[in-house]
Amino acid sequence: MAALILNFWAHRMISFRNALRALLGPLVVVGALSSAHAGPYDDALIKLTTDNYADTDAGVAALVESGNPRAEAIIEALRAGTLLYGDGKLAIRGPAGVAVDATTATPLVASDAGSLKPVRVNNRVRRAVEAALGSMTLLSPDQRRRLDAAAAVLRSRDAAALPSLDKALAQEKVERVKIAMLEARAAIILNQPDSSPGDRLAAVATLGNLGNQNALALLANLPAGASPELTAAARQASETIAANLALWNAAQNVWYGISLGSVLLLAAIGLAITFGTMGVINMAHGEMVMIGAYTTFMVQEVIRNHAPGLFGASLFIALPLAFLIAGAIGIAIERLVIRFLYGRPLETLLATWGLSLILQQGVRTMFGPSNREVGTPEWMSGALQLGGLSLTYNRIAIVIFAFAVFATLLLVLRYTSLGLYMRAVTQNRRMAGSVGIRTSRIDALAFGLGSGVAGIAGVALSQIDNVSPNLGQSYIIDSFMVVVFGGVGNLWGTLVGAMTLGVANKLLEPFAGAVLGKILLLVAIILFIQRRPRGLFALKGRAAEA
Amino acid sequence: MSTIINRQAVVVLVLLALAAIVIPAMNLAAAPGSVFHLSDHLVPLFGKYLCFALLALSVDLVWGFCGILSLGHGAFFALGGYAMGMYLMRQVGSRGVYADPVLPDFMVFLNWKELPWFWEGFNHFPYALLMILAVPGALAFVFGWFAFRSRVTGVYLSIMTQAMTFALMLAFFRNDMGFGGNNGLTDFKDILGFSVQAKSTRIALFVLSVAALAAGYVLCRWVVSSKLGKVVVAIRDAESRTRFLGYHVEQYKLVVFTLSAMLAGVAGALYVPQVGIINPGEFAPANSIEAVIWVAVGGRGTLAGAILGALVVNAGKTWFTGAVPEYWLFALGGLFVLVTLFMPTGILGAADKVWKRLRSRPEDTRGELASQAAE
Questions:
Q1: Which residues of B touch A279 (CB under 8 A)?
Q2: Spans of chain B, pLDDT less than 50
Q3: B88 to chain A, minimum CA–CA distance in Å?
Q4: Burial class of residue A130 in the structure, from the number of CB atoms within 10 Å of its CB (0-12 exposed, 13-18 middle, 19+ buried)
Q5: ipTM here
Q6: Taking the model in full, what pTM does it have?
Q7: Do A353 and B373 touch (CB under 8 A)?
Q8: Nearest Cβ partner for B164 among A341, A343, A526
């Protein structure tokens, strides 16, 4: 009973909407009728009702020609199989089963709708429909639809679309869509047997100017029987494009390198602080990163369940939390374990390795061994097109974030008293103690700071990597390399180290492959460390020998 | 001679000899079902422990006596293992899945037409033996030559050794390296004409492992009680001072490091036929660090402690991973922390302290005990 009432209301709603369309529809149709296209439009409609493939095909073409505003809806319905005919009338079946008159969009009475049959299509008609839709949506006010339409025309290479393409090109303002349309137009002309040699050369020139991957593919696949001058022009254009693309490619690789470098910087900078001040290799550093990532996961879980509206801000909520949680764990580790191992760096290394195993297994026990889903907020998805570069927003965010963290730490070390004490302890622990700095308290705070920074690195890495108990392990060796390469003298060493390794890695990748590139880099660092055993930015003076 | 074979050495060698007799006897002679019977799968398991003990011994030689904390000894172990694995692969001959008389299965699978040059010769056992020693030795020599000459020490050296084994792991994971990629080398058929699956072969391999461990132990004893050993200990305790006294510190370190890598290679070579597989996972940095903790648990700088630690920790690992697998990493991690915090001299060191207190008589330890200061 209740369902019936609901159903009734649903129908009422739909018929209300249809009634609205009925009010507006005829107005549009009348407008169309009064124009010069009235004749062809009606003829085209009649052709669609004859249940003959050839007629249907011709009808579709005529409909496109007519330029009637209803044409698109009718052809769309034909594609979807919801276009009905009968008694010389056309109708479109709506989503709720109610048919509307195709020409006027008024709802049909049930008795009328009963005798209707779907307009049948075959492959030929389907092709015509695709091409028709493509050329028609070229003029759509929606930018995305125009882009799709241009792509569809490019695929079909249907000469029939040429006039509408020219028309669309004349009024197109968006650069991206215009490029797609130019590509499509050139593709049609090049593949059209009867286009003039001059047009073809012009098309090749257009493609050469576009200079993208699609253009290169089109130029490479010239139809058979092309004249020698056309082939020569195409080859020249291809070469220019290839050189151009190589340049963009290199730029893209440098960008990937900077992005990887920022990730390394985030992961290594906390390590550089603890290693620099205390000479302690913290093998559990990677696990602090992992804890930061899991903090993000938990924050998002809570937000999903209790306040979905806050999701966009989830990362900003996670950042301070991750800093505090990882920092607190870091301080606890320092107070409970590392404090007792000063002066024995190798033992510290082993003890922190043990801690990293415990933390990993702890997280695995609590959250399970599989990857956890951390969502990307709306504002971080998508990509920025910059010429031939594609910069995804999440990578841009991480690069900016890494530099912000770096700058903040630089300022903390430079202008706060904690920073001053930390630098003093780094340079000469005993002397710092002698002038009244409580070195053990500075150690604890430095360890907490380093771990906290690792935690916020985890928040950032949760956006680009799998959040699993092994997250930290995959970064730890790279972070060590950054620190060893850059030296512990100051944070600039870490920046230079991270960026050098990141960019070198990505520039090597195209030639050597990802794995071999990485191996080469490791070997290079092993050799580099022979020359400068304390890294690029080494501490100088007596303290450095300790 | 008496300085090499001291009382500790006598105990170790007697225990090893006993193991070489008792374990095969329990497996072969005791009737199945009796309390003394040792089931077949335990023989290679114990053999595996002995290989680990030999690896621990090699780590102790560089860490306990020379102060070089190598986090890359697993690489030497794995290289020795791969050399043995390559010999075993060549022995498979046409019995592989693809029945190619020369090429191992994975090469046929990858469409390789001929054997890569570095596989030549591995069908001869003496050549394989030579490689088991030469490849880890050469790597250690080259790495050490670079590292020690430019005075990379302490944690920097540890990190570099870790990077070395990590780089090798990545390299061996590659299919086009020609070492079987991901899957490594496996499906061995026989060794020197004996089936690797046969009970008698397994017992022979076990006894060989005992013998190798005993020989390795005596060799290490000989090294540490020689003049070389004295200088090496001096380097551990005061590197700069030793250098100022006129010793070529780098050369001493290099000798010990290379020798230790060769021992690790032998351990790996004995390990492979007993477990039946070698894959790039053996290069994982975690494995090398685990070997270090065996030494720390037993007591570094004691040699016998390394053997004891390897056996104890691995027995514990077998038990844990069988009974409560999810707690093994907690236990291992806890072991790292507790041993470094509370037992810096390991089991042997602690036992020694107790022993001394009971006897209240100063024992002649001749620098074998781990010193507190690692520098």
A1: 155
A2: 1, 365-375
A3: 27
A4: middle
A5: 0.87
A6: 0.76
A7: no
A8: A526
